[in-house]
Design a protein that fits this description.
Order of helices and strands: EHEEEHEHEHEHEEEHHHHHHHHH
Shape: elongated
Strand order of the largest sheet: 2-1-5-6-10-9
Structural class: alpha/beta
Number of helices: 14
Distance between the termini: 50 Å
Helix content: 40-55%
Amino acid sequence: MSVPLVAVVAFNHFSPFHLSVPCIIFGDLLHDQKLFELRIFANESGALRSNEGLSVESSLSVDELAQADIIIVPSWRDPAEKPDQLMLNALVTAHSRGSQIVGLCLGTYVLAYAGLLKNHRAATHWEFEQDFISRFPDVKLDSNALYVDDDRLITSAGTAAGLDCCLYLVRQHYGSVIANRLARRMVIPPYREGGQAQFIERPIPISTQDIRINTLLDYLRNHLNQAHGLDELAQYSKMSRRTFTRQFYKATGMSVGEWLIVERIQRSQELLESTSLPIDAIAAQVGFQSATSLRQHFKHRLDVTPSEWRKTFQGKHMTTVN
């Protein structure tokens, strides 16, 4: 019985980690059972080198690439560079004959340059969200997903999310038992909760261009555990309520309520990572009315629970109470 042919696209200045992810997952990791036939493709001649001095050689022609059952583009060296048209045509041909086309991290750009992602959902690394949207406005980018599968077009978020995406492909072809065996062999979780929202850096500006609002922000940060009304804050800032709400939004880009929620969540993240305080104590300390309220806002904005956040970012070096 033949096994699926997996073609991994390599290129000069490749990232060793990104290239190694599909090579490990779809290689002979389970020595007693051959799951896939793995081959390397490159449209550039000679040895392909990474910036670190590693090199690989291609074993597939462009015509053979188009015949692969799964084609994986593990990254891409420059979002502004359109890949070779012959390779893009091979991706389109392969997809039209029923193959799965996979873009890991910035590999999503390659699928978009091929025109495959038009009007489809996709994922890529969160740092490149705005750049990707500006280049490919007809792609429905999901900025939170670890990976997306839309009509055999599978794309993933940055770096380690490629592992999640490749294990997903294994589950599709061989089921959860085999995928779990591979995950155990690699000592990684077979499935991760949440999305990449939990890793996105969205720092709140410490200050604005409005001195009165800056003074208020310092006050609020020092009194997060208290309830705050608009009339009280307007009086503190020596403005009318109407002027205050207008000036606050102009300075921060958020309403007072939105700013407080974001700031409180950010503070709760810090406490979850650095202390063993129970959730209800953290909720009280950052100004949420209850642990339930904290959990609801946390889950809505980060797509994980406070307990899951603590488990992920604090690890097991500290005894925790949840």
